[in-house]
Amino acid sequence: MEITVPALGEVEEVTVLQWLKGEGEEVEAGEAVVEVEADKAVFVVESPAAGRITRILIGAGDRARPGQPLAELQPP
User: Fold this and answer.
1) Burial per residue of 44-60, b for 16 or more beta-carbon CB atoms within 10 angstroms, e otherwise
2) What is the 3-class SS of the chain, one letter each residue?
3) pLDDT of residue 72
4) CA separation (Å) from 27 to 11, 19, 63, 65, 68?
5) What is the spatial distance between Cα 12 and Cα 74, in angstroms, rounded to a whole number?
6) Of 2.40.50.100, 3.40.50.10540, 3.40.50.2300, 3.40.109.10, which CATH number belongs to 2-74?
7) pLDDT class for 39, splitting at 50, 70, 90?
8) Which of 10, 27, 38, 39 could staple 14 via S-S, CB 3.0–4.6 A?
9) How far apart are CA 51 and CA 26, in angstroms?
10) How many angstroms separate the CA atoms of 30 and 47, rounded?
11) Which residues touch 54 (CB under 8 Å, ≥6 apart)?
């Protein structure tokens, strides 16, 4: 399973500001895991399910498009 950039209206690209959870950390469904910026607004991306973040694919300062995977999530 993956944590992806959500669709944010007309936004074509976001910048990852900071990860609130790191690799190896457990998260709950709906828990905030990463902050992204788009059009000078900051959004929080939530985990789609409970599990452990196994690998962060897009680091802080990098750009991503809606639907693009940000991290891999292993179910419990």
Assistant:
1) ebebbeebebeebebee
2) CEEECCCCCCCCCEEEEEECCCCCCEECCCCEEEEEEECCEEEEEECCCCEEEEEECCCCCCEECCCCEEEEEECC
3) 98
4) 26, 12, 23, 23, 20
5) 27
6) 2.40.50.100
7) confident
8) 38
9) 6
10) 5
11) 23, 24, 71, 72, 73, 74
Q: Which two tokens stand for residue 15?
A: 């910048």
The predicted pLDDT at position 40 comes to: 87
Please state the rounded mean pLDDT for residues 63-76. 96
